[in-house]
UniProtKB/TrEMBL annotation:
It comes from the Bacteria. Residues 2-206 form the Tetrapyrrole methylase domain. Signal peptide: none annotated. This is Precorrin-4 C(11)-methyltransferase. Pathway: Cofactor biosynthesis; adenosylcobalamin biosynthesis. InterPro entries: 4pyrrol_Mease, 4pyrrol_Methylase_sf, 4pyrrole_Mease_sub1, 4pyrrole_Mease_sub2, Cbl_synth_CobM/CibF, Siro_Cobalamin_biosynth, Uropor_MeTrfase_CS. Belongs to the precorrin methyltransferase family. It comes from Amycolatopsis oliviviridis. CDD domains: Precorrin-4_C11-MT. Gene3D superfamilies: Cobalt-precorrin-4 Transmethylase, Domain 1, Methyltransferase, Cobalt-precorrin-4 Transmethylase, Domain 2. Coiled coil: none annotated. The lineage of its organism: Bacteria, Bacillati, Actinomycetota, Actinomycetes, Pseudonocardiales. It holds the Pfam family TP_methylase. Keywords: Cobalamin biosynthesis, Methyltransferase, S-adenosyl-L-methionine, Transferase. The gene is cobM.
Length: 251
């Protein structure tokens, strides 16, 4: 049983390992609304393909366990990277209980694909060295106590928000006490997929820009000075003053 990060959408952004695993698995479970058909083309011609979009968790796990009992090697595609917002944790504990072994292959997360589309590094020397990846509370699992936008925003760090585009006005309202309205902001929708869109603005303008563009799904919201940083110092990583004989190439 292999949990495989499918990447942000483009079929060629899956890892080589993930592609090769797909090519040998007799059963593949995939999220139908988020998996391009070109990605499924990596599966064997006779593979059993199971769209999980309309299945609940017990049904999904039962299909995995059934395929395992039948002796199949199984691929479970997860959009983006399995380590974040993939719901693999609850699948793993049920597979543990059922005695089904599994491993995990990482994928390109949506925030990374969106940053690439923006042509921006999200950690810029002396401007921003941290990234908070979070989401907005809507029709979804409740956020843990303390994990509020206000608490994260108090740090002034760069924010990357999943699942928040339909509440962007509320997001802006919650962030305004902590960031200037001129703070750079961006929305990236459908990164790496057909119809991808990039909006660049400020905290004061980005909500109206998103509404005018009609963006309502599969979008990341970014807020932070790194999005428009210029004139920042070079990193020490490649500094001429660094003792390269005695220090590894790392930050």
């Amino acid at each position: 049983m292999h949990f495989i990060g499918a990447g942000p959408g483009a079929a060629d952004l899956i890892t080589v390992r993930g592609r090769d695993l797909l090519g040998r698995c007799g059963t593949c479970l995939y999220p139908g609304s988020m998996t391009p058909t070109a990605l499924l083309a990596y599966c064997p011609d006779d593979a059993v393909l199971i769209d999980t979009a309309n299945l609940d968790l017990p049904a999904i796990v039962e299909r995995m366990a059934e395929a395992h009992r039948d002796g199949h090697e199984i691929a479970r595609l997860c959009s983006g990277d399995p380590s974040i917002y993939s719901a693999v944790a609850e699948q793993m504990r049920r597979l543990d209980a059922a005695g089904v072994p599994y491993d995990v292959t990482p994928g390109v997360p949506a925030f990374a694909a969106a940053a690439a589309l923006l042509n921006r590094e999200l950690t810029v020397p002396e401007v921003g060295q941290s990234l908070v990846i979070t989401r907005a509370q809507a029709r979804s699992t409740a956020m843990p106590p303390g994990e509020t936008l206000a608490n994260f925003a108090r740090t002034g760090t760069t924010l990357a928000l999943h699942l928040a585009i339909n509440r962007i006005e509320q997001v802006v309202d919650e962030l305004r006490p902590f960031y200037q309205k001129t703070c750079p902001a961006a929305v990236v929708a459908l990164a790496s997929q057909p119809g991808e869109q990039v909006l660049r603005g400020t905290l004061g303008t980005i909500a109206a820009q998103a509404r005018e563009a009609g963006i309502s799904r599969a979008a990341m919201i970014f807020v932070g000075e790194v999005l428009a940083a210029e004139g920042f110092p070079d990193s020490f990583l490649y500094s001429a003053t660094r003792d390269r004989a005695n220090q590894p190439e790392s930050l």
